[in-house]
Amino acid sequence: MTIPHSLSRAARNALDTSVLLRDAPRTATKPKAQLRRYEVSALLRNGDVSQTRHIAPALTVFEDAFCAFTRGSLVETEHGPMAIEDLLPGDTVLTHEGQSETVLWKGSVTLVPGREDSRGRTRPLTRIMSDTFGMQRPLSGVIAGPAARLLGTPAHLRHLSDGQPMLTPVAEFQDGMNVIETQPPTPVELFHICLKRHTVIGVDGLQFETYHPGVTAVRMMSHSLRTVYMNLFPHINSLSDFGPLRMPRAGEGEIDAITA
């Protein structure tokens, strides 16, 4: 059976990733970069679904594409809630506007949130107790990944939003009582999804954003790292294919602007 061209391209990109990393220059003064295994499923332009495995740097900009939802998180679809691990490219989900949108990409990674990496960094999760944001919001206890962003603004960031809806990292809502940090010492599988456009979807009764790399993060990477990053997204050809941010996001102390 002939392998479709688009599927072979996805496989070739996965191979190119390992070659680029192998050939990357190394210096004696810097610690050896930690690598991580990323699992990718994508709906290609010809209708095929590619499933590839990539070895790429354990850098925040890479991990954030995979670290939003924990296994068992329930995503709202037109047929009812579906566990994130069962959602596949080609399936549809409901946006906060009530529209049905097709999943084009799903990524997953397994990490130990409480284990320090080579830079002494951990990736804590956030546990949100039931009814924290109102009746059935969330429906039950939710554990969100470090890259998850909620549609909402905590009190200490309201000066940034000017009264407008804003997407905020879940860690900013931690209060030590209803929203708390947790760092399990065992492996946790995390997921994220891309739609055709950046938007907000219902997950466990809360409004979370779909994946978008943001305005500046990818532009700050070297050419070789950007190539490795792009290989993780076989459904697109360029960064512009992610489209614009649909609403402002709270970054590290500042607002990510909406691009046209």
Keywords:
six-stranded antiparallel sheet; alpha+beta; disordered N terminus; 17 strands; 260 residues
Short synopsis of the structure:
With 260 residues, the protein is of the alpha+beta class.
Task: Write structural notes for this entry.
Strands 1, 2, 3, 6, 7 and 13 form a 6-stranded antiparallel β-sheet that branches. The protein is of the alpha+beta class. The relative contact order is 0.18. Helix 1 runs antiparallel to helix 4.
Mean pLDDT: 86
Strand share of the residues?
A: 25-35%
In this structure, how is the largest beta sheet organized? 6 strands, antiparallel
Unreliably modeled segments = 1-5
> Count of DSSP E strands?
17
Alpha-carbon distance between the termini? 43 Å
Could you estimate the helical fraction of the residues in percent?
10-25%
What is the 3D shape?
globular
Number of helices: 4
Q: Return Rg in Å.
A: 18 Å
Structural class: alpha+beta
Order of helices and strands: HEEHEEEEEEEEHEEEEEHEE
Which SSEs are present, and which pair or pack?
Elements: H1 5-23, E1 35-43, E2 49-57, H2 60-63, E3 69-70, E4 74-77, E5 80-83, E6 92-94, E7 100-111, E8 125-128, E9 142-144, E10 149-151, H3 158-161, E11 167-169, E12 179-182, E13 188-195, E14 200-203, E15 206-209, H4 223-230, E16 249-250, E17 255-256
Antiparallel strand pairs: 1-2, 1-7, 3-13, 4-5, 6-7, 7-13, 8-9, 8-12, 10-11, 14-15, 16-17
Helix pairs in contact: 1-4
